[in-house]
């Protein structure tokens, strides 16, 4: 069984072993504590001692402690070092900045820097639009957070948010060739965040807002959208909504149900939950019910302090049902979780209508683990990479920004988001579609290109493209 703590967790144990030790003793000690040997490398070997690196995947941190304890008890084996592969990959950070033009001599220097650079500065002073051809603006996106809703970890602050933001920047680069940089801001004040983002905007071709908690994230995005002329995209809202819709389009084909007929239950009415709800309403879903831990099912009969709960209660739950999340699950066709770990159980799934679809998308621990849910559901998806059907906004943000940057869109509008959702769904062919494959892999190299094309088309048709890429001319 895969662990709840953080998905695949790999450690490398450096062991010093006396020559008479049978490796099977070590393998047994690992196996007994739930570990799985991934690789064995011999570092050195002599008549007295041999040193080996054993790479082991462990289900969770408790098993790791047990495993180390177990190996420590094998006679003639000494643990020399334990390294955690995840941490090793973070040493020194995950990003660096490279220059695109070599500086080999004085002449190069005088072109890329002073005095030559001054002429370029003046050209930009006369015509700021040239920033798209003469600076990094054309291909650079800021990944902006205040660290208040980092994955499902909550308000862990801007420093602790950095590994996620560096990760997002890596994904922009690896998947779509977009340069991006983490901007982790040390304030939670809405006005201050808006002011900072507006101040840094000249450098960037787009702003990807990330892991900013609700309801502040809605105002921050709305204001920036109005006040900036470059795309501003809150990934946790719209990237998630695009990918969720893509998954649902395909899951509904499997169960033979229609958007207009289904009943959808949401857990978690935050940034992602609200945006996904809006997207489903746009896609024609009529029957949506949302529930939160504190307020239960949101309904018209109640007044809520949270403005988004108020909006939600007015725009969903047409039958004004009341009760808990568990009550909402009665006869639901689809459950969408964008909240926290283990909020539903098998009993809740048993109450659902035929062929339940469950998207338990909370990271890193879903609302219900697939191994618990699978006996009771037809289609199961999570946000994680270690289960089938990964519904994660990484399928959207690289391609949607690639498209927006390539046509110098002033914004990423609803038309572009819907186009991205249908583009992602279309990658899974009718002959390939099945319960375990409703959404393309994040490593499917066609995703970015297809999303890019459809997004550019939608931008052109909806009048927000400032440039027509040559293949569309
Ligand atoms: N798979 C994906 O691509 C994505 C997944 N997510 C996940 O969705 C969740 C929510 O993210 P955001 O909407 O950005 O955060 P948010 O802070 O805006 O909203 C969180 C919502 O979930 C509720 N919640 C939090 N912990 C809960 C718990 N233990 N039990 C029940 N309800 C709980 C909160 O009350 C709030 O309504 C996170 O776990 C996040 O990792 C978010 C974006 C993308
Ligand atoms: C995937 C993502 O953006 C999140 O869980 O916050
Ligand atoms: Mg996020």
Written description of the protein model:
The protein has 473 residues and is α/β, with parallel strands linked by helices. Helices cover 39% and strands 17% of the residues. The chain has helices at residues 23-32, 61-72, 85-88, 106-112, 117-126, 131-134, 157-176, 190-200, 216-227, 235-255, 271-282, 307-315, 325-328, 346-350, 370-373, 397-406, 414-426, 446-461, and strands spanning 9-17, 36-45, 50-58, 77-84, 140-145, 179-184, 206-209, 232-234, 263-267, 287-292, 296-297, 334-337, 357-360, 379-382. It is globular. The site of pyruvic acid has 8 residues, from helix 10.
Summarize the structure in short.
This protein has 473 residues and is α/β, with parallel strands linked by helices. It has helices at 23-32, 61-72, 85-88, 106-112, 117-126, 131-134, 157-176, 190-200, 216-227, 235-255, 271-282, 307-315, 325-328, 346-350, 370-373, 397-406, 414-426, 446-461, and strands spanning 9-17, 36-45, 50-58, 77-84, 140-145, 179-184, 206-209, 232-234, 263-267, 287-292, 296-297, 334-337, 357-360, 379-382. The radius of gyration is 25 Å and the shape is globular.
């Amino acid at each position: 069984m895969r662990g709840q703590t953080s998905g695949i967790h790999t450690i490398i144990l450096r062991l010093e072993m006396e020559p008479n030790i049978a490796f099977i003793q070590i393998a047994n000690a690992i196996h007994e504590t739930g570990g799985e040997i991934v690789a064995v490398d011999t570092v050195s070997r002599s008549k007295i001692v041999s040193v080996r690196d054993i790479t082991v995947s462990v289900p969770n941190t408790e098993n790791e402690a047990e495993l180390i304890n177990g190996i420590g008890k094998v006679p003639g084996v000494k643990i020399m070092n334990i390294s955690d592969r995840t941490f090793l990959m973070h040493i020194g950070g995950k990003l660096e900045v490279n220059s695109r033009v070599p500086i080999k001599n004085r002449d190069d220097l005088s072109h890329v820097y002073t005095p030559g650079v001054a002429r370029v500065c003046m050209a930009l002073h006369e015509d700021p639009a040239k920033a798209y051809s003469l600076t990094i603006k054309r291909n650079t996106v800021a990944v902006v957070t205040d660290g208040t809703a980092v994955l499902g970890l909550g308000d862990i602050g801007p420093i602790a948010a950095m590994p996620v933001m560096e990760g997002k920047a890596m994904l922009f680069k690896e998947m779509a060739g977009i340069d991006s940089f983490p901007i982790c801001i040390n304030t939670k004040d809405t006005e201050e965040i808006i002011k900072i983002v507006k101040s840094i905007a000249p450098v960037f071709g787009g702003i990807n807002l990330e892991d900013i908690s609700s309801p502040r994230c809605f105002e921050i995005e709305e204001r920036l959208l109005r006040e900036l002329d470059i795309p501003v995209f809150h990934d946790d809202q719209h990237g998630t909504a695009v990918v969720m819709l893509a998954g649902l389009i395909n899951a509904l084909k499997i169960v033979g149900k229609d958007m207009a007929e289904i009943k959808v239950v949401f857990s978690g009415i935050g940034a992602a939950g609200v945006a996904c709800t809006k997207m489903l309403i746009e896609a024609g879903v009529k029957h949506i019910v949302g529930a939160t831990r504190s307020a239960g099912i949101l309904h018209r009969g109640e007044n809520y302090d949270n403005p988004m709960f108020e909006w939600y209660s007015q725009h969903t739950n047409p039958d004004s049902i009341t009760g808990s999340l568990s009550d909402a699950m009665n006869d639901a066709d689809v459950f969408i979780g964008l909240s926290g770990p283990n909020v539903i159980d098998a009993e809740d799934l048993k109450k659902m209508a035929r062929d339940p679809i469950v998207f338990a998308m909370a990271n890193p621990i879903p609302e219900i683990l697939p191994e618990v849910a699978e006996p009771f559901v037809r289609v199961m998806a999570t946000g994680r990479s270690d289960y089938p059907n990964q519904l994660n906004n990484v399928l959207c943000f690289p391609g949607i920004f690639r498209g927006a940057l390539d046509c110098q869109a002033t914004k990423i509008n609803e038309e572009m988001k819907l186009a991205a959702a249908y583009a992602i769904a279309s990658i899974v062919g009718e002959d390939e579609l099945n319960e375990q494959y409703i959404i393309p892999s994040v490593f499917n190299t066609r995703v970015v290109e297809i999303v890019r094309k459809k997004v550019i088309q939608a931008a052109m048709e909806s009048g927000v493209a400032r440039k027509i890429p040559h293949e569309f001319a």
